[in-house]
Structure formats: C-alpha cells, structure tokens
User: Fold these one by one.
Assistant:
Number 1:
Amino acid sequence: MPMFRQGRYATLQVWLEKLPESELQTKPDLCFWYAWALLISDRREEYEQPLRLAERAWQSQANTHKLAQIHVIRGMEVYFKAQAQETIALAQSALRDLAEDDRFNRGIAYLLLGGGYSVAGKVAEATTALLAACANSRETGDLSIELAATEELGYVQMLQGKLCDAVKTYQDVLRRHDNRFHNQAIRANIGMGVIHRAWNDLEASRRYLASALEIDRQTGFGKKWPWLHVENSRTLALTGEMESAVAEHCSRSARLSCSFCIGGGEFNRGGKMARAMQGAG
C-alpha cells in the first residue's frame, strides 16, 4: 500500500473509512491496511475488528504468508506495550513465515525484533536486528522503517554508553526525517537533549528538547511520551529556571492522565535512558 509506505497514515485512514463496510468485509487486504492505519494513529481500541476480519479470511485460505503479516502488526502492538518476549516471539514467527520477497514486512519484523531485544536489555542481539532492518529498508526505499530502526539503534547505543556513536546516529535521523515522520524526530531530539545534558551542555540540551516540544505542539505526537516533559523539566531545573521546570512537571502530570498514555513502552524507555546516563559524561 503506497500511502502507508510513504507515511501518509491519516490519508490512508480517511480513504478507507469512506469505503462501504461490505467492501472491507470482502477484501482482507484492505482490512489489514485499515488496521495498520488505526494502530499507528493511536486508535488502538478500534484496530482489532478489521484485523480479525483479515485474519479469518487468510486462515480460511491457509495463507501462511499473509498470516505472517498478522504477526507483524500484533508484534507492533505488544512492542508499544514494552512486552519484550511477546514482541521477539511474534517478530521471529513473522520472519520465518513471510514471503522472501515481502521486503516491506520483513523490514518491520527486523525492526520489531531489534526493539524487543532492546526492551529486554539484549543490546548485541538488538544491534544485529536493527542493522538488518536498516539495510533491508534502505534497499527497498522504505524511509519510515529505516528511520525508526536507526533511531532505535541510537537508543541502544545510549544504553551501551556509546554516546558519541548515539549522537551520530540521532543526527542522521534528524538530517533525513521529513514532515511525515514526526515520532522518530521527537525521539531523536529527546535522545540528543539527554546526552548533551549529561555532557553539561545545557544550551544544546534545551535546544534539542525545544525542537521536540515544537514538533509536539504542531502535531500532538509528543503527548504519547510524557517523559519528553520530564527530560525538559530536568534540563530547565539545572539551568536555574525553577518556575519553568515546575510548569513542565505539571504538564507531564496532566499528560499522564490522557488516554494516549495507556502503554508502558515509552515509560520503559525513559527510565532506562535515565539510568544509562547516570555517571555518563
């Protein structure tokens, strides 16, 4: 589906919602892409119905390759929840059963495998899988997957204490991202802000975190990640701007109560990032 591969999730979702329900029920591929669009758009409570329609149709056909795509999307859901072992298992199952020429879904599966390993703290395995995701997606021109894998690789490098490598990786994401891939840019800016704070370069830390906040303001994507405000409040406190730091803390508390903050993945990442930076310099 070209619109999905180009990162035009909202456009795809609107187009599919205009189709008659009878059309979706008879076309499992459309149901599958509709489920993807709903999941990526944070309408996770709605994506299960079209996904089940696609799954039942492909089960009746004994279509192993298509059912492997179901493993990919379910792997993305559990990855959002930071369920490491479930993510790894679904990604491995998908890689086993996907068609060899299904490079798009294989790229996502490698990304999920690397993400699952990073959540589990297995940095060597995570690095191998993420590099495979980057190589696969670079060859196929799937920029969204390549940037997501590259950004995740920067996070893994942070966990290893390889801060200079992480900076280069995040810079690559920020240089190549465009207006379709806001979430990768937010994450990369947060990583850069945290690293520069560890290096006591508070001006650079503020600048990168301000960039993440501006993307949040423009798109609303950052409200999935209250730890953006946690990191910004920490930098503001170190610069002596206590009033602004308190305001950021209040903003974080408000966002914790919003409906988007139901998954544990980003909190898991924020906590690990903070621990990795303790004593770093």
Number 2:
Amino acid sequence: MIKYEKIINSDMPIKLVRFTGEIYPYIDKHWHNSIEIVLAICGGSTAFIDGKYYPLYQNDTGIPVIINSCAIHSFGTPNTSGSYIGLALQINYDFFKSVYKDIDHIQFKQPDSHSCNQIKECLYKLVECFELRNKNKRIEIIGQVYHLIYLLVSELGEKKKDSVIQKSNKNKHRLTSIVKYIDAHYQDKLTIEVISEHFNLSEGHLSKIFKDNMDITIKAYISQIRVSHAHDMLIHTDLPLIDIALSSGFPNTKALNKEFKHLYDISPLEYRRKINMYDH
C-alpha cells in the first residue's frame, strides 16, 4: 500500500507530495496543466510520458523525470512489488508563466546527469524549507521554486516543435480516452479502423491528433504496449513464447520477435536467458 503525504500546503503555487509504501505506485494515464517533476528516492519502475517510457530508478539511483504541461503520463505497472519512496512536485502553470512569460513557446527535455543532480538538490532543499519553523518559511520555499524554474528554463528548455503552443484540452481529453482504450484492448485485433469507429472519428483525423499529441503513430504505440506486456511476462512467468505472444496481442511468435527486437535490440528468448543467468 502507498501512503501519500502532502508536504507543501495548498496556498502555495506548487504542490509537493511524498510517497512511501511497499508497492511501486501505479497511477493511470492522465494529464494536467502544471509542470511536474517526479523523483524516486528508493525503488520505482517507469514513467510513461507522451508515448515513451523513462526509468525512474537505475543503478540504485533515482532519476528525476520532467512532465511538460498537458503531457499524457502514467507511472509504474499495476501490482509491481517493491519498497518505494519518492517525491512529486507540480508547479502551477500560471505561476510559472508569471515568472517566465515565454513558457507557452518552450518545452523541457529530460535532464542529463549534471542537471539530474541539480534538480534533486532543489527538491531536497524544498523539503528542508518546509521543515523550517520560522515566519520566513514561505520566502525560502518560493526562492527555491524560482531557482528550480531558472534551472528548467536555462538547462532543459527547448522550443516547441512546429511552433505548437498548447494542444487543445479537447484533444487531450479525447487522447486520454483513446490511450486507455488501447491499453484495455491491446490483446484484441486492434486497427486504426476499429479505434476510429469506436470514437466516431475518421481514420485520418484520429491518426493526425494521435501523432501530433503523442509523437508516435497509433500502430507503433499499440506495438509498444504489447511488447511491454510481453517483457513483463518474460521476467515474471515461465510460459512458452507462443503463449506470451498470444496473451500480449501478437498473432504469432514471429511478430513478437520482430517488435521486441526493434525496441530492445535483442530477441525475447535471448532476453529471458540473460535474466535467468543474472538471477542465478
């Protein structure tokens, strides 16, 4: 079970939450206007952001992940066990814009090792600021937020592609529903025709809004979800490859091999052998 502790109060232009528990948190796909930074302190699996997966914890080290405004994202996989401690910071978009007026025209890339350390230091200092017991605590917190915004803009800011300023909320709501539908039906025979008919959209319009918002085609996204499911089954079960392929939505092992190797640069059976070798 995961416990949530709100560290920063609601009268601030930020929300800082600490997570602790014996199972990695699973948060379903959603989006919001705030800019968010998530940091795993101990344990953690992956973050899904606009069609791509990012590790939260590698080599016993937490990796801060940046979630841009209106990005569709989720965390972890259901029922993944393991102790977890983490922080999530959300910065109000309007407040960010009051500090940096050109926020509409930029987005933030994921941090490199140098930026990772700077961001982690800022998050830890924010927690320390909250624990101060003096009347200037709010000033200390806002000062740290300003410094963090400076780091984001100067180190990680880049111009938005194709001069897109902000994707419409209507499309984001629709995309969230489409993504959840694919995630729930990846084992079925999913095609653009099936999905467009379900959501009463033309195939062309569906393909365009998906690619524009997710930076990945529907076909590639479906394959990615299926491979991710197969990947988990390779690690956690002893099922034969054909059963894993069919359970993951692939028609045969040849299709699974092709997509798995495309993403991981290794065949499923070779991957399983390596995992078994490390376990022993």
Number 3:
Amino acid sequence: RLLREVSFRETITRRYVGESDIQISTEIDRTLGAVAPPKIAQKPRNSKLQEGADAQFNVQLSGNPKPRVTWFRNGQRLVNSNKHEIVTTHNQTTLRVKNTQKSDSGHYTLLAENPNGCIVTSAYLAVESPQETYAQDHKSQYIMDTQQTETEERVEIVEKALAPQFVKVCQDRDVTEGKLTRFDCRVTGRPYPEVTWFINDRQIRDDYNHKILVNESGNHALMITNVDRSDSGVVTCVARNKSGETSFQCRLNVIEKEQVVAPKFVERFSTLSVREGEPVALNARAVGTPTPRITWQKDG
C-alpha cells in the first residue's frame, strides 16, 4: 500500500524535461522570512457559472523555500494550455479555466510543496447550460434577502456545504521503538476539509521521521518511519472546513527497544570421568539480551 501511495504521488506530480518547476526548490529566500512549510493564507472559493464564462481560482500562500504549486481537476494534473492558465507569483497562484463547459465541472485542488512539507486546498466549480434554471440545480441552495427596507432583492447562490466526517479511522497500537508505523484515515466534506495531525497536542509537520500523505480520494495518512519514545501517547487527527470540525484519537504505545547484550556463560561444566554405562549430567547457563539460544555439540 505504501508503494502504491508513493507511485500515485509521483505519477500525478511528475514533471517533464523543459518544465521550469521540474524540481522542488531548496533555495532559502531570506526575503520570505524564516524557513517554513507551505501555508495557505487564502483558500480558493467554490464557483457557479454558465457555459462560456471564465472561471478563476485564487490562492494566497507562503513558505520558505518558495513552494512548488500543482493544480488538479478531479485528481488529474493541469498544465498551462489553451484551456488552463496558471500564473504563480511569490505569494499567490491563480488558475484560470477559459470558456468553461459543463465538462469542466469538478473539484479543483492545489498542492503546494517545499522540502519542509506540503498542503492541499480545494474548491468546486459547477458549470450549467443557459437552459438550466436555478430550480433544476440540486447542488445549490438559495438564500434570499427580502427585507422591506431594501429596494432590490439580493439572491445569493452558495454551494451546499457539508461538515467534515471521518469514514475511516485508525486504532490503538503497540509499536517497537525504531520500527515503522502508519496511521490511515478517510474524510469527506464540502469544501474539501483540511486535515491536521497531532501527537500529544503537538502539531506534526513533514520532517525526516514524520511523513504526511494525502491523495485526491480523501485518504490521509501519518507515517512515522522510525518510531521514537517521544512519539508515544495520543495521536489526534483533526479535519475542518467552513461548515465545521471533527476529530478522532488513538493511542500509540512505543515499546522500548531492548538493549542488545552479547551472550555470556554464568555457569560452566567441567571435565568429568565416569564408568561406562553410568549416567552423566552436564550443566551450563548463559545470560544475554535477547535471551541466548543454547545448543549442544559433541566433537564439534
């Protein structure tokens, strides 16, 4: 499963020769402040348009080194073309979908990455034909302000929002110090929820030992490649969007790795002389960690 996750991430983010962002930048820009993983300052907004109009998603983000950004539609990577225009500055990225058609409807997701971590954020685009009426659209709800003091009615169309909900969570576990473990979960919601991991109320970010994985199907994972005693405790996963927040917890019990001690004999047998046919008992005892396995040999 881990190999499939890595293969999926590599497939959808793969760059080709000639692309300017073929590699993630490792250059630290002092004008961007301290070294930090990517962070979303302004999320993209859901959009509802008629066919023929242009859609635009704006995201403000930060990070040092400068994050590499990748846009997706329903899990498929987007590149600059006659249909899609991607413009990225030092603190903002914009995706423009030109001359939208009903086939352009879907979830548009931004993935921002630098050597210190990654983050995703999504928005939904609904494109309808001119013949469709608002009453036929089951994806939207209508909020009408009919206050008598106003001279005009204001109609606000908003995408029906769904609070986050975990449909798969992980269980308590015991892991030996130094081993690899992985916590998997799956979450639903609209807009797509942001997921954050904590160990003992300390937020976990991508580092040499902790890897945060996510794919476009709503599957999230926290992988600890080399479990340490400091990882022992309560693992919390929090999912939130504008409609609400939910979380679950499980316990990680780290079993201390035994110190390896070479075997040592603490009781030895000595040379014995016995008559033929008489029984003989040879006793030996050894200690060590792990417990030594003793075998007997005669004449080698």
Number 4:
Amino acid sequence: MAATVNEPRSDAGRLSTHGNVWEMSRLEHERVPAGSALPPARGPLWMLVLDGSAELQTAAGRHGLDTGDAALVAARTAHRLVAGEDLLLAAADLRPVVASSYRLPSPFVVRGFSGRHPAVTRLIGTCPLEGRCLTPLFAFGYASLLGAALVTSWLETREPDERPRQDEAVADVLAALASDPGEDWTPERMARLAHLSRSALTARFRRATGRSPMEILRELRMHHARTLLTDGSQPVGRVASAVGYRSVAAFSRAFAAHHGAAPQAWRAATSSSAAGHPQ
C-alpha cells in the first residue's frame, strides 16, 4: 500500500510520536548523478531530497520527488530510486521499534516535507550522522523527530473520523513501557495498569501492534540496550540491570538471540563502524 501527502503545512513545535518509538543508526548526505540509481539499501530507507529531483519506483507505482519532498520505504518494500537530475539526498535507516495503531503505509511520500518541518530540515542539512554528530544521543533525537514528523504529516491528511482509532489502553501501557523498560514488568502488572485481564490486553495489543505486550517489552528493552551499549563507558552489567535483567548471563542470552551477537561483540562491531567516519 502506498500513500502520498500533498498539502504543505508548517508543523514546527507540534510534533508528537503518537505512541510510536523510532530508531536509526545512520543519516548521510549522498550525491547521485543524473540518470543514476541510488545503491539499494539493506533495510528501511527514509529520504529527503535536499537538491535536484528523483523518481521512486516500487511495485505500487512511480513517485516523482522534487527538492523538499521526503519518502519512507519499509524494509519489505522493493524499490529503486533514480536521479532525474544531479541529486543531493539525505538518507537514513529510519525504522519503527514499536508502532501503535498509526502504522504508516509503504512507500509513504510527503510532498513539501521541508516546508512542513523547516526546523527538522535545517538540522538534517547541517548535521548528518557523521563526525561530531555521530553519537547515540543525536541518532535517538533524529529518529524521534523524523518519526514524529512523518506520523504528524500522515494524520493531517485524514479527517478525524477517517483516522484509525488508537486503543487508549494499549497506548497507556506502551507509554509506561517506553518510559521505563527496565522496570519489573509482568503480564499481570501490565493488565492491572490497563484495567483488563491478561488475555484481553494481549488480544488488544495484537490487534493494535501485531505483537503481544511481552514481545513489545522485549523490543523496547533491546532498543534501550543498544543505545546504552554505544556508550563504551557503560559496563555490560550496568546495561543489563538498566533494561530489566537480573543477571548479565540472562541479558547476554536475550541480546544474542535478538541481534545474533553478544553485547560485547555488538559493541565492538558498532565502535569499529563508527571509527571509520572522519571526525
């Protein structure tokens, strides 16, 4: 399913994550000569045309992109981006860690993104994730800003009665989990918070997010763990405790099952990758 937002409107200062949690590890400026294609991305792709024009090609159709337009393509969506003229592009691996009832279509094109969100655009144009800006804090902040801008743009194209209704019980539990994933959360505690039975809460979570409450909690804990592990001064034991694990061994098993590498190995690989960027 594809969607396009056409009407430009400035929303600086009125962004909301709407229950979504986003992350990214790279945001780069890329130049693509006229007639050439952007090398295929491994995973999701968010893009903003800083200068020039391009055509985004997917099975759903072709979308022309001009200066100031943005698009989000999920990892599952095969695509090709071809420069119509010499192209300067901001490209990021933006992806939702947790998506609430407001799940964006793919591809999702926002016409006039720069006009809608000028402050976000200026930040992206000034400081991609490299050199002094290659830090977990910048990456987390960028992901939250871009995700909120996309969801806000999407919601504005719909009349209030056309918007998917957000399950307030699910939203309340999601907010609590996201604010403190290291708490001693159990299915029973989440159900009490929502004033529902365990089975009712699980059913509503699956309907809203496609996953159970405990699956969402695991995603949030791993997201928080990745952020903490990029700080080399944080011992793995402290990270384990901060994300709700009572032992380093239990945390390491869970982290390796989720990422395919133990925490220390993941940290080393991430540090090596970051070291390859000029300061």
